């Protein structure tokens, strides 16, 4: 029930109509009986500063920030967390005492989503497909968690090289390599890898027949194949990996855990995930299966 004490939350992006965050956050808010309300707001880049000022003036407790504002919003904040500063990207803002604080919950969201696999990855090799904003968060997370080495496989080699150099300089972890973007190279490198992560949008709805790897690509049995995409839940990339006997994971749990972390930051409430996450997952799977948006 919304009343005059209801605290306001939201997400800004451009576009924003595809976002599952309002359904997800309001589901959690209701389950926990919190007096909060979460909405989506379409904000174009030229209105970003005005929008941030407005949320603050209207006493919003906080907002999530999605594409294309994750980097651009930093200049309008008073303080950013260590993680957000290292990544150069903020996805969560808190308004408090007339100040604006920025956080990045993608890192913890990715790590929490790994579940039982998380500890088995220490000292192992990871291959990351893509070199954009989410690849950056994933690489940072893997390094925080003690990965052995990381290979970046990206369409544009210079961008892969640039991300490699930046991540080495930010983290001082120097076992990051950029590999040539050919299937032969990926086939060779995958033999020693424990996890292969797609951070590109290839295969996302409606381009569901696309895949970041060729049809002939052989996934080793028992490797963990992770796709940050969650619509569709099982992309062509994940279908092929599953058929080959690999463990597969889509991006839904990352979305869920980063959202839970944002809500914890805003409300200060400890959120018990044991029962909440399976219920929320089921709820979002129904939403995704029933929609053809994106
Ligand atoms: N599950 C979650 O919670 C979560 C969180 C964040 C992001 N995501 C998903 O992750 C995906 C990427 O997001 P992002 O923010 O990292 O995007 P981004 O910054 O735009 O980066 C996209 C990357 O994908 C590559 N790429 C794009 N189209 C390609 C194509 N047709 N062929 C080969 N490479 C291509 C780009 O390569 P170049 O460098 O060559 O341009 C770039 O490296 C999106 O699908 C997003 O929805 C999910």
What does the radius of gyration come to? 19 Å
Number of strands: 12
| Residue runs with pLDDT of under 50 for 5 or more positions | none
Terminal CA distance reads 30 Å
CATH architecture of the largest domain: 3-Layer(aba) Sandwich
CATH topology of the largest domain: Rossmann fold
Specify the structural class. alpha/beta
Q: Order of strands in the sheet with the most strands?
A: 2-1-3-5-6-4
User: What is the string of SSEs from the N terminus onward?
Assistant: EHEHEEHEEHEHEHEHEEHEHH
- Helical segment tally? 10
CATH homologous superfamily assignment of the largest domain? NAD(P)-binding Rossmann-like Domain
Overall geometry: globular
Mean pLDDT: 96
Profile the largest sheet: 6 strands, mixed
CATH C-level class of the largest domain: Alpha Beta
Number of domains: 2
The proportion of residues in beta strands is: 15-25%
Bound molecules: NADP nicotinamide-adenine-dinucleotide phosphate
Keywords:
six-stranded mixed sheet, alpha/beta, Rossmann fold, 294 residues, globular, 38% helix, six-stranded parallel sheet, binds NADP nicotinamide-adenine-dinucleotide phosphate
Question: What does the model show?
Answer:
- With 294 residues, this protein is an alpha/beta fold.
- The protein folds into two domains: 7-104 and 253-289, Leucine Dehydrogenase, chain A, domain 1 (Rossmann fold, 3-Layer(aba) Sandwich); 108-250, NAD(P)-binding Rossmann-like Domain (Rossmann fold, 3-Layer(aba) Sandwich).
- It contains ten helices and twelve strands.
- The chain has helices at residues 21-32, 48-57, 82-87, 106-113, 133-144, 157-171, 183-190, 236-243, 252-267, 273-289, and strands at residues 7-13, 36-42, 62-65, 79-80, 92-96, 99-103, 125-129, 149-153, 176-179, 195-198, 224-227, 247-249.
- The strands form two sheets. The chain has a six-stranded mixed sheet with strand order 2-1-3-5-6-4. A six-stranded parallel sheet has the order 9-8-7-10-11-12, with helices on both faces.
- Helix 1 (21-32) crosses helix 9, helix 4 (106-113) crosses helix 5 (133-144) and helix 9 crosses helix 10 (273-289).
- The mean pLDDT is 96.
- Residues 67, 106, 109, 130-135, 154-156, 159, 199-202, 204, 228-230, 251, 254-255, 258 line the site of NADP nicotinamide-adenine-dinucleotide phosphate (NAP).
């Amino acid at each position: 029930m919304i009343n005059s004490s209801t605290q306001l939350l939201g997400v800004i992006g451009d576009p924003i109509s595809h976002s599952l965050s309002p359904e997800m956050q309001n589901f959690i808010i209701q389950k926990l009986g919190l007096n909060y309300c979460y909405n989506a707001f379409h904000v174009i880049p030229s209105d970003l500063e005005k929008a941030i000022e407005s949320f603050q003036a209207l006493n919003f407790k906080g907002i999530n920030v999605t594409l294309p504002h994750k980097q651009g919003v930093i200049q309008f904040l008073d303080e950013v967390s260590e993680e957000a500063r290292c990544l150069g990207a903020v996805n969560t803002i808190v308004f408090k005492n007339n100040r604006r604080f920025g956080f990045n919950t993608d890192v913890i969201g990715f790590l929490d989503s790994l579940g039982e696999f998380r500890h088995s990855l220490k000292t192992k090799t990871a291959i990351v497909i893509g070199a954009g904003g989410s690849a950056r968060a994933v690489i940072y997370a893997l390094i925080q968690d003690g990965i052995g080495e990381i290979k970046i496989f990206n369409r544009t080699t210079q961008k892969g090289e640039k991300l490699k150099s930046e991540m080495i300089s930010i983290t001082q972890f120097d076992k990051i390599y950029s590999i040539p973007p050919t299937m032969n190279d990926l086939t060779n490198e995958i033999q020693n890898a424990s996890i292969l992560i797609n951070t590109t949008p290839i295969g996302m709805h409606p381009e569901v027949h696309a895949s970041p790897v060729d049809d002939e690509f052989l996934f080793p049995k028992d490797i963990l194949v992770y796709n940050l995409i969650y619509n569709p839940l099982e992309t062509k990339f994940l279908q092929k990996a599953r058929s080959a006997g690999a463990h597969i994971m889509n991006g839904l749990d990352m979305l869920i855990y980063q959202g839970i972390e944002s809500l914890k930051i805003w409300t200060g409430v400890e959120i018990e995930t044991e029962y909440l996450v399976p219920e929320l997952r089921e709820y979002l799977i129904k939403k995704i299966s029933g929609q053809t948006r994106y």
